[in-house]
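Exam revision sheet. Question 4 asks you to relate a sequence to its structure. Input first:
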Amino acid sequence: MSDPIVILTEEPLGADDRVNIERLVDGADSRLLVLVPANTERHLLVDFLENLSMLDVAKAFRELAARNPDAAAERAHADETLAASLAALEGLGSGVAGQVVDGKAVDGLVAKVRETGASQAVVITRPHAVADTFHTDWANKAQDQLGVPVLHLYAGSGFIGDS
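Answer key, structure tokens:
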């Protein structure tokens, strides 16, 4: 059995993501472990600037006016994201398992990689203009802590982030 591959995602994985992970597995019997953060820990100002940079002005002001998210609603969304992601990856490698992680997303990824002895980690996010530009995205943070390759993919696409 090959080393497991730990995948951290903030978005429900779909068909395009399956193709990317299938290429990464490349017929090996690697076990896939999917992690979904219970809280993505986004910051109001960063989100606002990011939405503006992506030319989504309506979303920027809508989220700026929104109140703090409900923890139960965030957890339910994370559970849905995990279920969709596990379904999308079903049948790859030697099996797919997953969990919702509390606390900081990168800390959860680092802990799971160390716990399982994984030699590969994957971070799947939507584009985050500010974090990606300044290399403060989850993939860069994880790679700094782990010392193993961390592949950064953008959800629903074949695009690779700059890690």
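Marking note for examiners. The chain is about 45% helix and 15% strand.
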